[in-house]
Amino acid sequence: MTDIPGPGRIRVLIADDQRVVRDGLSMLVGLIDGVEIVGTACDGAEAVRLAQAHRPDVVLMDLHMPGTDGIAATADLRRRLPATRVLVLTACASEDAIVPALRAGARGYLTKDASAEQIEAAIHAVHAGQT
What we know:
By secondary structure, the protein is an alpha/beta fold. It has one domain (10-127): Response regulator (Rossmann fold, 3-Layer(aba) Sandwich), CATH 3.40.50. The protein contains five helices and five strands. Helix 3 (70-80) links the parallel strand 3 and strand 4 (85-90).
């Protein structure tokens, strides 16, 4: 992982407490043309720290993590790094989970059963300022 972005690359940080999910997403997202993984975090507090250090364009943020959860981390990132866009990840896309995340500043959400194409489209969409 590098702090020097390639030209026109979308810099992505991944936050998920489950190592297999975090590593799998990192591998999958790292294969997308024009996307660079700048870090991975195991909880919301680490996501905020790494985001401040690496200034990602997009953070893929799990909602349910121990300690600082994805909603609190999203709100913190919104205050500290308003240009960074958060795309939340959730196992269940219930209104009770998604609405608080959107209120905290997330630009969109994906369920963890999303396809590689859906993940790629969502990263590009939120990077472009869409929801």
